[in-house]
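Private note to self, pasted from the team thread so I don't lose it. Backbone tokens:
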């Protein structure tokens, strides 16, 4: 650490110790500062222990106790009396101070990560933020709310160059190997290694790690190979130059290290070095509640949800321009590393207990103007990333496995998932081609629900001018998108009309009851659900968590899922509501609102296994990309699936007035697809 930073550190640490003993502030704000100072001292002690290697030597019981101390005030009922809870903070500290001080406390919790990784500059910045806020309450009078807001705003803006630049670097630079070193060097049969990451660890991570520790090397190699081979095939199938790439990013949930270690070795054999960075912890880098990177257990999902709108404290056009400027400078600094980055390999998990959030009036939310700025920032960020890591040169893969939280049948479900992830792609390829041959001759498809499902949607299709060489549906087997089981297209927006309805669905971990989207010429013109009594609250819930603050979104994808094996496994184990969208989208027709599946890759040649060129890669929105990318891309893509048992018919209508039924009453009726019904029987 530079000498000037050492001096700042000493001054900050001494001052925090004084405040922990005597806050020098009267009333409830004094309690806030004293408790927060105690937390900062715990962070300093954590950093010293990490530097000295104490966490490698400690017993499992000692590690569990320390992990509990780090997260104890946001776990379970303790959260109700934590300053991290905006409702409690407002109740104790008043509305003028509560939301701001709750944000500050939450931002300081990022120091857990910085302490374990030895990131002293970020720790010091957080300590000085605390001292700046504390100083406002000293001197005989309390500050105005505007003064605190100003302090937070300039903290976020001034230190964007530190937090944002570091985030870009850790996404591209393999020399930042904190997590990879643990994965490759630790004894993975001893669950103590999990506590070296600095994440919250519970029975889910311990149980997953212990289960994988009991599997054979052959089983581990098979799972890792499905994962890494899917990534390689993504480049092969799309004819992208994998040989030009030097790095790949692995994203996963802690507990799966045995598979990840083998995956790292597999990628090394392909000539790729693995970058493994954790989810963002500073609000400067967090996009709503997205988990991009590796992560541990969630101490409290309501805590995460309560703070997803904290950007309301600083989101304005000036901040957006500031962050974009820092992003540009960071990508310029790491331009060479960006040029050889291949994209992410993602391992999702499923089976966690469903979460239905409580809406708190004390929680911060972006207002209308801020939502527009957030959309602008996301759009410009997406454009910039594509400039330095071009979509036509990168790929990805994604796979999912259950965790012990899914229930007593975890081990059986895990093995069933492995079976689903390794279904014979040749069988599905041939069956799906039968569907595509009919769909390619259609002008539109009509999808209707049955029973309580009120779906009645007409999806317009792009015309095929050269049927011998062109197709409008991609035959999706198991490469980038594991497991097998869907054919999909980018619909024509004009002429796409009707209502999409699901009686209940989990989207990104949040439950939606009776979700309805109404389309006119491919754009959502209205929407509703029944999660809350107030209609406006339901609309806000959809707008924030499906629309990502956009006024409307196009129908970016229409697909027919064909993985009836996965569907029946979900029925058999009663886990339909816990499936990740990766598997759920294969268990019925699904519809994505937002961008198409080919965003930033519209001009890249894509062929189906039969050699036909995919021509339905864009819509009337994405066609604007060369004029104004901000109008072409929405930087979101949310899949909504109608399960087979809520499905009435899928009918293809042809130019000559004839029609072909593909699915009726939840069963495949097109000749050549009957095999898909076998699991359903």
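Design output:
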């Amino acid at each position: 650490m530079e000498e000037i930073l050492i001096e700042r550190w000493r001054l900050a640490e001494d001052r925090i110790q004084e405040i922990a003993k005597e806050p020098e502030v009267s009333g409830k704000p004094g309690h806030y500062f004293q408790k927060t100072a105690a937390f900062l001292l715990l962070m300093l002690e954590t950093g010293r222990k990490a530097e000295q290697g104490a966490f490698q030597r400690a017993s499992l019981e000692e590690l569990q106790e320390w992990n509990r101390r780090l997260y104890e005030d946001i776990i379970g009922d303790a959260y109700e009396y934590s300053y991290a809870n905006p409702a409690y903070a407002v109740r104790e500290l008043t509305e003028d101070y509560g939301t701001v001080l709750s944000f500050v406390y939450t931002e300081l919790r990022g120091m857990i990560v910085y302490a374990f990784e030895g990131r002293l500059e970020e720790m010091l910045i957080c300590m000085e933020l605390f001292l700046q806020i504390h100083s406002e309450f000293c001197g005989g009078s309390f500050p105005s709310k505007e003064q605190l807001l100003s302090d937070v705003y300039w903290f976020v803006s001034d230190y964007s160059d530190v937090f944002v630049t570091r985030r870009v670097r850790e996404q591209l630079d393999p020399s930042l190997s904190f997590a990879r070193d643990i994965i490759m060097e630790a004894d993975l049969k001893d669950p103590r290694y999990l506590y070296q990451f600095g994440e919250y660890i519970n029975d889910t991570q311990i149980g997953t790690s212990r289960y994988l520790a009991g599997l054979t090397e052959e089983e581990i190699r098979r799972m890792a190979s499905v994962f890494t081979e899917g990534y390689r095939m993504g480049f092969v199938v799309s004819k992208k130059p994998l040989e030009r790439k030097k790095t790949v990013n692995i994203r996963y949930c802690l507990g799966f290290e045995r598979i990840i270690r083998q995956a790292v070795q597999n990628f090394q054999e392909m000539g790729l070095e693995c970058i493994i960075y954790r989810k963002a912890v500073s609000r400067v880098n967090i996009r709503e509640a997205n988990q991009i990177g590796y992560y541990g257990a969630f101490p409290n999902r309501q805590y995460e949800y309560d703070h997803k709108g904290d950007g309301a404290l600083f989101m304005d056009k000036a901040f957006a321009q500031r962050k974009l400027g820092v992003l540009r400078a960071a990508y310029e600094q790491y331009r060479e590393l960006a040029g050889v980055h291949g994209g992410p390999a993602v391992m999702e998990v499923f089976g966690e207990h469903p979460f239905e959030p409580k809406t708190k009036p004390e929680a911060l939310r972006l207002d209308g103007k801020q939502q527009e700025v957030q959309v602008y920032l996301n759009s410009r960020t997406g454009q910039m990333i594509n400039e330095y890591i071009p979509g036509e040169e990168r790929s990805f893969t994604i796979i999912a496995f259950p965790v012990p939280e899914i229930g007593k049948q975890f081990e059986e479900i895990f093995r069933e998932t492995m079976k689903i992830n390794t279904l014979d792609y040749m069988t599905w390829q041939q069956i799906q081609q039968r569907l595509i041959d009919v769909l390619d001759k259609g002008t539109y498809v009509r999808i209707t629900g049955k029973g309580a499902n009120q779906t009645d949607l007409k999806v317009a299709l792009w015309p095929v001018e050269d049927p011998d060489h062109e197709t409008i549906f991609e035959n999706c087997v198991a490469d980038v998108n594991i497991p097998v089981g869907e054919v999909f297209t980018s619909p024509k927006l004009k002429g796409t009309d009707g209502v999409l309805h699901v009686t209940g669905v989990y989207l990104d971990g949040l439950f939606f009851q009776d979700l309805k989207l109404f389309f006119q010429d491919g754009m959502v013109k209205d929407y509703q659900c029944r999660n809350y009594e107030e209609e406006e609250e339901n609309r806000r819930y959809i707008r924030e968590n499906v629309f990502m603050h956009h006024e409307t979104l196009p129908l970016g994808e229409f697909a027919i899922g064909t993985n009836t094996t996965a569907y029946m496994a979900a029925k058999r184990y009663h886990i339909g509501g816990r499936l990740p969208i990766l598997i759920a989208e294969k268990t019925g027709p699904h519809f994505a609102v937002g961008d198409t599946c080919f965003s930033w890759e519209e001009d890249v040649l894509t062929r189906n296994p039969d050699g036909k060129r995919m021509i339905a890669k864009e819509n009337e929105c994405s066609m604007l990309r060369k004029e104004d990318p901000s109008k072409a891309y929405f930087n979101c893509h949310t899949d909504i699936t109608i399960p087979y048992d809520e499905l009435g018919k899928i009918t293809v209508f042809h130019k000559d007035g004839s029609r072909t039924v593909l699915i009726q009453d939840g069963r495949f009726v097109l000749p050549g697809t009957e095999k898909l019904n076998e699991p359903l029987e």
